[in-house]
Write a structure and sequence with these properties.
The chain has 261 residues and is α/β, with parallel strands linked by helices. The chain contains 8 helices and 10 strands. Strands 1-10-9-6-2-3-5 form a 7-stranded parallel β-sheet, with helices on one face. Strands 4-8-7 form a 3-stranded antiparallel β-sheet, covered by helices on one side. Helix 7 links the parallel strand 9 and strand 10. Helix 1 packs across helix 2. It binds fructose -6-phosphate (F6R).
């Protein structure tokens, strides 16, 4: 199995490159569906996209987009609400149709129902064409924490304590749950771009790309995606092994794991 990995000099260059991938896709297919992530890593990527719009290169009018996840429960004004993040970093700056961009509703009092409806909305819109992912220091993708089932769909999950530390803000207590696309939802995307930056991600990036495909490192499943592109800065790439140590037949083992879960 070969994974396409590109390594960029620094965070700026990395963000530029990832923006170029999404921009090219949007130019070729204006009515496409993107899957978006939040967090520290893609902030500059969104800035670059908004800049390309400002300069008249991009048109977001026909775009559909689904975010990976949202904290649960969150009040409408919670500073960490991903809906706010998306408005602030992208949607307030480009000509998206607000009816076509989706983030799971963390303010609902029926989160399970919301999760099922979100999965169905993705399915009805024809699935995700290009999905952006970050990676947590424990290998999570979306809020699919270690141990998540490979066949999971959008659902309500508990956030791991390591992840809560990553996102903590002193002023506001962080919700201990989230609504997240599942591993299966993510793997059904036609194409995936995984983006990572900084030395704190170096070890987990190596485990995800070169280690065994294991539920202990949710991102390791991406090794089996047919159209995965990994974009790293030099720091995040600094621990990648020269040798490739995939399982001999990870597909067979995963099928067994799915059957047992
Ligand atoms: C965010 C998300 C998370 C982040 C991951 C990395 O929507 O789904 O999986 O991508 O926690 O976060 P940062 O970029 O802040 O290191």
């Amino acid at each position: 199995m070969t994974v396409s990995v590109s390594i960029h000099e620094n965070y700026d260059r990395l963000s530029e490159q990832v923006a170029r991938i999404f921009a090219r896709h949007l130019l070729n297919t204006p009515d496409t569906t993107f899957g978006f992530a939040t967090g520290e890593t893609p902030k500059q990527f969104y800035e670059r996209l908004a800049e390309l719009y400002d300069r008249g290169f991009l048109d977001f009018q026909q775009l559909k987009a689904f975010n990976l996840d949202e904290f649960y429960p969150v009040g409408p004004d919670h500073p960490k609400r991903f809906k706010r993040y998306m408005d602030r970093h992208l949607y307030d700056h480009v000509n998206v149709d607000p009816r076509q961009v989706h983030v799971p509703d963390g303010t609902t009092d029926q989160p399970e129902k919301e999760a099922r409806a979100y999965e169905e909305k993705i399915r009805r819109s024809g699935g995700i064409d290009l999905q952006l992912l970050g990676i947590g220091c424990n290998g999570h993708i979306g809020f699919n924490e270690p141990g998540s089932a490979w066949d999971s769909e959008t659902r309500v999950v508990s956030i791991a304590s390591q992840t809560r530390e990553q996102y903590s803000v002193e002023s506001e207590p962080l919700p201990d749950q989230a609504i997240t696309m599942g591993i299966k939802t993510i793997m059904h995307s036609s194409r995936i771009v995984l983006m990572a930056s900084g030395t704190r991600k170096a070890e987990i990036v190596n485990r995800a790309l070169n280690g065994p495909v294991t539920r202990e490192v949710p991102a390791s499943i991406l090794q089996l995606h047919p159209h995965l592109q990994v974009c790293l800065d030099q720091q995040a790439a600094s621990r990648i092994d020269e040798s490739y140590t995939n399982d001999e037949d990870p597909v067979e083992r995963i099928e067994q794991e799915v059957a047992q879960s």
